[in-house]
Amino acid sequence: MNRWFSFIILLFLVPLQTTWLTGLSLDSIRPDLGLILVFFVGFYGGERQGLLIGLLAGGLLDLFSGGPLGSNLVSKALLGWGSGVLGRLCMNVTGGMTMIFVFGLSLLSGIITYLIQGLAMETIPFGGVFRWTILPEALYNTLVAAVVFWLGLRRLRVRTAIG
Amino acid sequence: MPRQIKNYSGFIVLFIIFMIVFLFLFPEMQRRPVHFLTRPLVFVLSEIQGSLTGIGRGLGNIWFGYINLASVRSENERLRLDLARLRNENIRLQEVALTHERLGQILEFKKEGGPQFLLASVIGRDPSNWYRTVMIDKGEKDGVEVEMGAVSPHGVVGRVIKTNRSVSQVLLLTDRNSAVAGRVQRTRDEGLIEGTERGLARMRYLSLLAEARAGDLVLTSGLAGIFPKGLLIGTLGPVMKEEPDLFQQAEIIPSMDFSKLEEVMIITSLDPDESGQ
């Protein structure tokens, strides 16, 4: 991905996530644009790009989050790196498979965030967090990632193939 | 050998980064200020955040204007233009009237006496679903400090947890990390109001002898020194016994819809005589 394009997306990621995206809340749950961005960059750009964008996006999100400094940084960086590994191992995956990856990595990211919160703050019951935060967020992320995938990336790939 | 090092360089960098980050995650490190790193970034991003909030509100007005306009298709061009202009004007005036109403309520609240307040606008919300916080447009240069209380004319909002030069972050009452000392108005029973996983609130540690019941109003007890005594927190839901039956607890219906919060008042001093802003 073009570096300037990535920089601009990153610069607007946090303000968008904290302002306009609140209008998309379903029962107080919003999609995590940072996670979706990091997944796609890692999946199509490789481990190194995924890791880098994960670190940057996570670090910026941490500055505006009420949680411990570093929780988004670690979870997004791991997610970016993991997406890169998945993208390298799985060639020619279908859209459905990609969405399963988004869902799985969203759940994993949620569990990592939970563990980090337990390390830095007090431990909270996992059942309630999984039911009311991790699972609905993963489902919502998958839905938004599917829209992004079908609207944007597929068109880009078709254009690249024709070109 | 150099080739082997090159092969593992990615993992080595990754390992070093995570070691540094994990060090930062420990509570002792969290308490140390890293303002020199975060201040410039927060400043730039909060400026964009403020602009986007303004644009969003403006676009919302235009969008509602457009929706209204769609219902007058049969009118001629001049009348349509006039109507659109008047409708937009009307929406703008309604917005002004609503703002005046809100500010009027705040003014009334301030006139009632009590603590010194600082009015702030909400410019953003927490980027994650894990925490319930709002970003406000007042910071250290305006006198905002960590652990100051935030209220609205409808009741308790939360407390300040992070400050920057021009913006601050307020932890809402409904966040699971929030805890406010409260009292049931009718029975005078005391308890602790905590946020829940679902973004609601509950009153815990109510005595087994407490006679509180659903519908009772819950107010601040003033014990923690952040909020004055007697501010509305919410209404009590059904009271249940806690495991292992040492206390009772009850859900609380907050006194306001936190998703519609636009302005908050930061309590700069609990002393009414101290000169505030």
Descriptive overview:
- The complex is a heterodimer of chains A (163) and B (277).
- By secondary structure, chain A is mainly alpha-helical.
- Chain A is 79% helix and 0% strand.
- Chain A has helices at residues 3-18, 33-45, 47-63, 71-89, 95-120, 126-162.
- Chain A is globular and about 45 Å long.
- Chain B is of the alpha+beta class and 277 residues long.
- Chain B has 4 helices and 12 strands.
- Chain B has a 6-stranded antiparallel barrel.
- The longest helix of chain B has 35 residues, at 35-69.
- The termini of chain B are far apart.
- Classes of the chains: A mainly alpha (163), B alpha+beta (277).
- At the A-B interface, helix 1, helix 3, helix 4, helix 5 and helix 6 of A face helix 1, helix 3 and strand 1 of B.
Write the layout of secondary structure elements.
The complex is a heterodimer of chains A (163) and B (277).
Chain A: H1 3-18, H2 33-45, H3 47-63, H4 71-89, H5 95-120, H6 126-162
Helix pairs in contact in A: 1-3, 2-3, 2-4, 3-4, 4-5, 5-6
Chain B: H1 2-25, H2 27-31, H3 35-69, H4 77-111, E1 116-125, E2 133-136, E3 149-152, E4 155-163, E5 168-172, E6 179-184, E7 190-195, E8 201-206, E9 217-220, E10 232-241, E11 248-254, E12 263-269
Antiparallel strand pairs in B: 1-2, 1-12, 2-5, 3-4, 3-12, 4-5, 6-7, 6-9, 7-8, 8-11, 9-10, 10-11
Helix pairs in contact in B: 3-4
